[in-house]
Specification:
mainly beta; six-stranded antiparallel beta sheet; four-stranded antiparallel beta sheet; globular
């Protein structure tokens, strides 16, 4: 009887300790972000583990911050004063070859107050306090605007490729309402003219493919994308390709086109998921590569707008292993009485561990609150071990992210939004919180 009591006490103690360990730390009591300007957070190559991340607050100020997980030291820097109140305007980050940090962000499409890509660069390596003044530039040419009609600027996704002498690449939804690409060979001081990367076969300036990007910083940039927005595309499907050596390639290694031959069409790339009326339209959340360099993706299917089904797909032996993870519930923005929900496809969100994408973290409804869980698979998503990260929360937990460029020596840090109010991407009140493993 004594042994059994001792075992029960030990079990209770371990459960209690685990729940205590799951309490998040606050990075900012006022911050939000979307998931199409990335990396939202990066591990740096500083001698001690340091993460650089950022957000936009509820009055429209854009911030960068560094976090030392070991000590909990946080340093904040305002990058831009009152840009606009819109969570699409969060900054993305890139470490340059000299250790300085580049940040890029945009207005959402463009407003009467401004339009273009905004960039800040630190003046000393790893030191967010010394981010320089914001520089605004508009990647466009008259010929491109004449051909693709629309000139808007949303999102920025900067990368650096060591194999190309540290050439910089930045992607965003710019000319034509389509994914664009610019490059820099002088650490972001100047940028090339833009190229449209993906477009519909018949030009539709209201059609906008959504893209998630991933790079190991060496030679490849991976693209996971859709036909458009699920609000507008009833059969929104999911596609994959990668950039390497001045060309874009399918998952099977077949060339789609060279950079000079851009743009290409979604159907030219590898199809991860082809939507049908029965299985539902889709949207995307994350992409990474495993230790063998194979792409792994996380996306959502919507048989109906109230059913947000999380799927995990990995490219293995020449095909996509595509499996259901969980029904995550419905959208997370709050409904307003008498008004139609404007963002029915805003799921809680998923993020892959970039160092080991057999692990992912996801937000889903538990007893009416969006909570976080961790999922591990050892068979490309056929089965899962799921453990809770947050439970019995008073606030909703959404849009998790594991910082990119994680090294073996780095602890796993998960960051996410925890909101008091989220009615719309222009009407929110949230914190940025984190947990260290």
């Amino acid at each position: 009887m004594l042994i059994r009591t001792t075992i029960l006490f030990l079990f209770s103690f371990l459960v209690f300790s685990e729940i205590n360990a799951q309490q998040p730390q606050v990075l900012s009591y006022d911050g939000a972000w979307c998931w199409f300007s990335d990396p939202r957070a990066i591990y740096t190559s500083a001698s001690k583990t340091m993460i650089v991340t950022g957000w936009i607050d509820k009055t429209g100020n854009v911030y960068a911050a560094s976090l030392e997980p070991g000590s909990g030291k946080i340093v904040n820097k305002k990058l831009y004063h009152e840009l606009e109140i819109d969570d699409h305007d969060n900054p993305a980050f890139l470490e340059l070859a000299d250790g300085n940090i580049l940040s890029q962000y945009t207005w959402h499409n463009g407003t009467v107050n401004g339009m273009g890509v905004i960039q800040n660069i630190t003046e000393h390596p790893y030191d967010v306090k010394c981010f320089g003044a914001p520089l605004i530039f508009k990647p466009y040419t008259e010929a491109l605007v004449s051909k693709y009609k629309k000139q808007t600027y949303s999102y920025a996704n900067p990368f650096r490729l060591e194999s190309e002498q540290n050439k910089l690449y930045s992607f965003g939804r710019w000319i034509g309402f389509k994914p664009n690409l610019i490059t820099s060979t002088d650490n972001g001081k100047t940028w090339s003219e833009p190229r449209v990367v993906i477009t519909s076969r018949g030009l539709d300036v209201n059609n906008r493919p959504y893209v998630k990007y991933h790079s190991d910083g060496k030679s490849k940039i991976h693209l996971l994308f859709t036909n458009g927005h699920p609000n507008n595309e009833p059969l929104n499907s999911v596609y994959y390709c990668y950039y390497e050596n001045n060309a874009f390639w399918r998952a099977d290694g077949m060339q789609i086109c060279t950079v000079d031959q851009l743009p290409f069409h979604p159907e030219d790339a590898s199809i991860v998921y082809k939507a049908t009326p029965a299985t539902g339209k889709a949207w995307i959340f994350d992409i990474a590569t495993d230790k063998k360099g194979r792409p792994v993706v996380a996306y959502t299917r919507y048989p109906s707008n109230r059913e947000h089904l999380y799927y995990y797909a990995a490219y293995n032996n020449g095909k996509w292993e595509d499996h259901l993870l969980i029904n995550s519930g419905t959208w997370f923005p709050e409904d307003e009485e008498g008004k139609k929900q404007r963002e029915e496809n805003y799921s809680g969100g998923m993020t892959l561990d970039p160092a080991d994408p057999s692990t992912l973290y996801f937000s889903h409804q538990v007893n009416g609150i969006f909570e976080l869980s961790k999922a591990i698979t050892r068979n490309f998503g056929k089965s899962w071990k799921i453990t809770p990260i947050t439970r019995n929360s008073k606030l909703n937990n959404v849009r998790p992210v594991v910082p990119r460029y994680k090294k073996k020596s780095d602890p796993t840090v998960l960051l996410w939004m925890q909101f008091r109010k989220y009615r719309h991407y222009t009407d929110y009140d949230a914190d940025i919180v984190y947990r260290v493993w």
